[in-house]
Design goal:
Layout lengths: L1 E3 L2 E3 L3 E4 L6 H11 L3 E5 L23 E5 L6 H13 L5 E4 L12 H13 L3 E6 L3 H10 L5 E2 L13 H10 L5 E3 L5 H9 L4 E4 L1 H4 L4 H21 L21
Parallel strand pairs: 3-4, 3-10, 4-5, 6-7, 7-8, 9-10
Antiparallel strand pairs: 1-2
Helix pairs in contact: 1-8, 2-3, 3-4, 4-5, 6-8
């Protein structure tokens, strides 16, 4: 089970809800993914305008936990305001802190992320900060009391997969809260690798929504995350420099 704050989940796949070709494809992709946590950018939704189309209306919300994110914020104050807006709207008291510090790389601002995390924790939120793969920053967020750490595998939407597995393994090793690999996942191979490193979960969006068949890709991601987690729990065989026969050399039939 995946536990974040006071919430517990069976699925280790968190799914984003943007950029799907249609509501119907989005709804089916969500269903086959078996994800229990759906994330979305509060600033990109007309949550107070009933005449505007809203993907939330397409889903049975009793089956999901909504994870609003603060995408679009450039400062801690903006992120806190967006989080409070989502909470007042009755969406969730769990929030993904996303504060972009570079418009070209879309990498998060470490200083503002730390500030926003502390401010939201003081407000009683369940806080999941999105960070780079900075080992020290992840430790500081964990020590501050964040309920999960969300380091990126590579830049948002790049599909480049895991660029720095060593740093991610350090973050996972030192963390006392769930580590959710977020951003840059491009294929089921990437998702399985993240789980084999020991991550607790994976959050992805573009890898599914921009796939030729988003529904099939959503299922593939679910299966790869399950397989990667099982592989991590099983413990892989050691890597060796030389071959080792898979059959015993004793008791052979004489020539």
């Amino acid at each position: 089970m995946l536990t974040i704050g006071n919430k517990t989940f069976k699925s280790r796949l968190l799914l984003g809800t943007g950029k799907y070709p249609s509501f119907d494809i989005q709804k089916e992709a969500v269903r086959v993914s078996e994800s229990e946590i759906l994330t979305f950018a509060v600033r990109r939704m007309n949550i107070f305008e009933p005449s505007q189309p809203n993907f939330l209306e397409q889903l049975d919300l009793s089956k999901y936990t909504l994870l609003p994110n603060t995408a679009g914020a450039k400062t801690a104050e903006e992120a806190v305001r967006i989080a409070k807006l989502a909470k007042v709207s009755g969406l969730c008291d769990m929030v993904k802190v996303e504060i972009i510090g570079c418009d070209r790389s879309l990498l998060p601002d470490p200083v503002e992320t730390l500030r926003a995390t502390e401010m939201l924790l003081n407000e009683g939120f369940i806080v999941l900060p999105y960070t780079s793969d900075d080992v020290v920053l992840a430790r500081k967020l964990c020590e501050m009391g964040a309920h999960a750490i969300m380091p990126g595998a590579s830049p948002i939407g790049s599909g480049r997969g895991i660029l720095n597995p060593l740093n991610l393994s350090f973050i996972i090793e030192q963390s006392t809260v769930p580590v959710i690999i977020d951003a840059g996942i491009g294929s089921p191979k990437d998702a399985a690798y993240a789980m084999e490193l020991g991550a607790d979960a994976v959050l992805l969006n573009t890898a599914v929504s921009e796939a030729y068949d988003p529904v099939k890709m959503a299922k593939a991601m679910r299966l790869s995350i399950d397989a990667g987690r099982l592989g991590f729990e099983a413990g892989r065989m050691p890597k060796r420099d030389y071959a080792v026969a898979s059959s015993p050399m004793v008791g052979l039939v004489p020539n």
